[in-house]
Amino acid sequence: MSEPIVQIRNLTLALPRGADRPHAVEDLSLDLMPGKILCVVGESGSGKSMSAYALTGLLPRALRVAGGEIRFEGRDLLRLDERTWRDLRGRRIAMIFQEPMTALNPVMRIGDQIAEMFEAHDLLTPKERRARAVALAGEVGLPNPEQIVRSYPHQLSGGQRQRAMIAMALALEPAVLVADEPTTALDVTTQAQILTLIRDLQTRRNMAVLFITHDFGVVADIADHVAVLQRGRLVESGPAEAVLRRPQAAYTKALLAAVPSLTPPERAPITEAPVALTVTGLAKTYATGGGLFGKPRVVAAVKEVGFDLRRGETLGLVGESGSGKSTTARLAIRLIEPDHGTVRLGSLDFTALGPTALRDERRRIQMIFQDPFASLNPRRTVEQIIAGGPIAHGTPARQARARARELLALVGLPQTAAERYPNAFSGGQRQRIGIARALAMEPDVLVADEAVSALDVSVQAQVLALLEDLKARLGIAMLFITHDLRVAAAICDRIAVMHRGTIVETNRTAALFRAPEHPYTRSLLAAVPGASFTESA
Amino acid sequence: MTVRPASPPLGTPAPAETVLPETVLPPSRSPAAIALRRGLSHGGFLIGAGLVGLIVLVALAAPLVAPHDPYAQDVSRRLIPPIWHAKGTAEHWLGTDKLGRDYLSRLIYGSQISLLIGVSAALISGVIGTTLGVLAGYYGGRVDAVVSYVVTTRLALPVVLVALAMASLVGGSLKVVVLVLGFLLWDRFAVVTRAATRQVRAQDFVAAAKASGFGAGRILGQEILPNILNALIVVATLEMAHAILLEAALSFLGLGVQPPLPSWGLMIAEGKPYMFFQPWVITIPGIALVVLVLGINLLGDGVRDITAPEGRT
Q1: How crowded is residue A297: how many other Cβ atoms within 10 Å of its Cβ?
Q2: Exposed/middle/buried for A367, CB within 10 Å: 0-12, 13-18, 19+?
Q3: For an interface test with B, which of A327, A361, A421 has the most B Cβ atoms less than 10 Å from its Cβ?
Q4: Reduced to 3 DSSP states, what percent helix, strand and coil does chain A have, rounded to the nearest 5?
Q5: Which residue ranges have biased composition labelled Pro residues (chain B) (predicted)?
């Protein structure tokens, strides 16, 4: 076996005083092998990104190196000065980031940004730099390299931007590539392509890759070695196959168990219960730009969408970004007004209501939001947040507050939560408060818009279990919007797949996963990371 | 109100496995308590609050602290220098003015006028500007276009010139100064609250309130206003300082507060002929003005810092 190219030994990074723990990373030792991909996995706050930053000398100022060393080509990276780092970064160690839109300079052409890598290190002539930029663009699979190097970042799609970032990182043929969640912001089909690209380039160039991710599916697809971090400590490491199939640490086992399976359980069809929500011919177009004289650009976000939903049933609305699934959710609860189409709640035509009647009837359809931090008013206590809706509808304050406390128990939070402000809670706890707020209105229909997407996988499993349990006990109909097919498989009775504003396929969950009919559904299913690993697990 | 169906059964709490490890809550403080705790370790905030607090106390307790009647003239004791001067007397710590009135007493009563003008002008302009800004930010579209037009129009008016013209047309008095400044200084309130409201309106908790059937009034009052209060307080302090300085300028030019009221600006104006030989008649009210405005600005900057977004606890 060959020598490791990077050796991280007993790395300890101290957090500033007053943080929730003394060290971001504690006593971490890892080896990076040439030509291998090491995946560092962990939930948010595990210190995985900080270890990547330490390896590229980009640690935030607040963090202090409290011990250990990182050996690379005979040097200790933790003791380099800024000049040496500038020379090393890009040339020997390169990095790609999570969000390709913010990591690229929006006013500079793609080709110039790639060429800048050579310029920063005083390599080649301007003409050679341009030629190399075109060659690199071709190598990372950007279409029409000669033309695309002349475009600006906003003219590229998310996947193309990430390819451009990779081209920049590869420009100087580094020995080590550090990738910090490079596919997290991408749609699942694009993610699959980028993962293949990274794998390809890494074998072709014999690079060592440190790949940071929170997604075990991605790990299964790409890793040679895996290191699992929990609260800054290494809990388990080893060859990917061993860690994924025969995890030793209890934490790794729990994490793997929390990943929803791609073989959904067979669920009994719900045909008896009364229909709670009927959506027919819903459409919404947006006009943007245009200004005083220009012609506005018209985008059809939702085109003729229709479905129905029975009490006690969960319908998944699945699609990639821009497919119109969130717009459909907001149309259904009339946060935005449709161009045409109707939403019926039971026998009530929800779309025909005037402003006053609408305010009365709104309680019947409630929403759970994606971002647990933006969806709770930071200036109100949890009790005020939960009881506010019923009080606005005329419930006596005392009764509403008593009910708020019952709901806290129902969503698994202690009574003491009532007097606190949202800042005291973690993401998962906030999502429980959001669910309690929605339930306080005693709705017939619950719309969950990416309600677990911002949560870590273990917390996600808990919130999904809670939603499932509530739905069963309260007989609520649930419209569940998600981009994540694993989550959809775990909770939905039926799934509707959305693509470019229309529903292309609707079927019972198990049947849809077993025999997808529409080609788009098939490509979505094929792109889910780690399919083989969970199928056989 | 509609007839609501019976509550769904709630009896037992959620099954144990969904209450898993997250139920241990850290100690929680209200946003106000967090701000106060930060404030106690913020130097500028403490100095500003100290200065402003001191001046407010003095203004409130003026009849108790002032050694003399600020209007009592005594021509036989004109222009006595302050106590640290060779010719100073312990009876008039800060000396007397050209009419023999006790300067310290006038300074103390003058703080009432400065604060009165600062607070009431900021209050009037705050109400006007916040109303316009919040409506523009919340409703957007046509409302926003109209408000933006009004704001632009207001910004095209030179404040000092308009204030001078109004005061000379109607005649200067305390009431006129307060009204003129109140109706002129609302632009920054409108601009800042409009931007802040737009930001808050885009948050999901506002959508949640709408989905709960809250009316516009409740959304503005409960969801939007409390979340733009920080920005409002900062603007209010800036405009208070601005109004106090403008009052001094107007009074100095004889178009503001009229004698014999003891306004600081008026005191400077009245001391003008004596500034070369009795400079204290100008420096004393001048320093008072600087200290008050500095204090208010430090306080405003402090409020801005200590109420900055969460995550710095």
Answers
A1: 10
A2: buried
A3: A421
A4: 40, 25, 35
A5: 1-12
pLDDT at B295: 92
CB burial class (10 A; 0-12, 13-18, 19+) of residue B173?
Answer: middle
Min CA distance, A416 vs chain B (Å)?
Answer: 9
Decide: A437 and A384 in contact? Cβ < 8 Å.
no
Residue type, B115: L
The CA distance from A485 to A524, in Å, is 8
B99's CB contacts (< 8 A; 6+ apart) are B73, B74, B75, B78
pLDDT tens readout for residues A321-375: 888 888 899 999 999 899 989 999 988 999 888 888 998 899 899 999 988 888 9
* Nearest residue in A to B211, CA atom: A362
Residue B47 CB-density burial (10 A; 0-12 exposed, 13-18 middle, 19+ buried): middle
What percent of chain B has a predicted confidence (pLDDT) above 70? 89
> Whole-model pTM?
0.80
Domain assignment present for residue B300? The answer is yes
Which of chain A's residues have a Cβ under 8 Å away from the Cβ of B213?
A: 358-363, 389, 392-393
Per CATH, is A275-536 categorized as 3.40.50.300?
A: yes
Contact with chain A for residue B221, Cβ under 8 A: no
Return the structure tokens found at A357: 């009647």
Q: What's the structural domain count of chain B?
A: 1
Q: Where are the domains of chain A?
A: 6-92+174-258, 275-536
Would you state the torsion angle of the CA atoms of residues B79, B83, B86, B89, taken in this order, to the nearest 10 degrees? Answer: 70
Distance from C-alpha of A251 to C-alpha of A43, rounded to nearest angstrom:
11
DSSP string over B175-218: HHHHHHHHHHTTHHHHHHHHHHHHHHHTSHHHHHHHHTT--HHH
Please give the average per-residue pLDDT across B51-73, as a whole number.
86
Coil, strand, or helix at residue A279?
strand
Q: Which of residues 319-348 of A touch B (CB under 8 A)?
A: 330, 333, 335
Separation of first and last alpha carbons in chain A: 29
| C-alpha span between A128 and B262 (Å, rounded) | 78
Hey, do A6-92+174-258 and A275-536 end up sharing a CATH topology, with the first three levels equal? yes
3-state secondary structure at position A535: helix
Would the CB atoms of A362 and B22 count as touching at under 8 Å?
no
Half-sphere exposure of A179 (CA within 13 A, CB side): 35
Specify the CATH number for the domain of residue B182. Answer: 1.10.3720.10
Structural domain A6-92+174-258, CATH architecture: 3-Layer(aba) Sandwich (3.40)
Question: What value does the mean pLDDT take over residues B16-31?
Answer: 52
Query: Going edge to edge, which strands form the sheet with A6-14?
Result: A23-32, A6-14, A64-72, A75-76
Helical H segments across A268-341, by residue range: 325-332
A361: chain B residues, CB-CB within 8 Å: 2, 213
Domain containing residue B161: 34-69+77-306
Check if B226 contacts A (Cβ < 8 Å).
Answer: yes
Task: With cut-offs at 50, 70 and 90, classify the pLDDT of residue B278.
Answer: confident
Contact A318, A495 (CB under 8 A): yes
Task: Name the nearest CA neighbour of A389 among B168, B156, B218.
Answer: B218
- Asked if the structure places residue B81 within a domain, the reply is yes
Does residue B295 sit within a domain?
A: yes
Q: How far is CA B95 from CA A186, B58, B80, in A?
A: 76, 19, 5
* Inter-residue contact A8 to A51 (CB < 8 Å): yes
Backbone angles phi, psi at A44, to 5 degrees: -65, 140
The answer to whether the beta carbons of residues A450 and A481 sit under 8 Å apart is yes
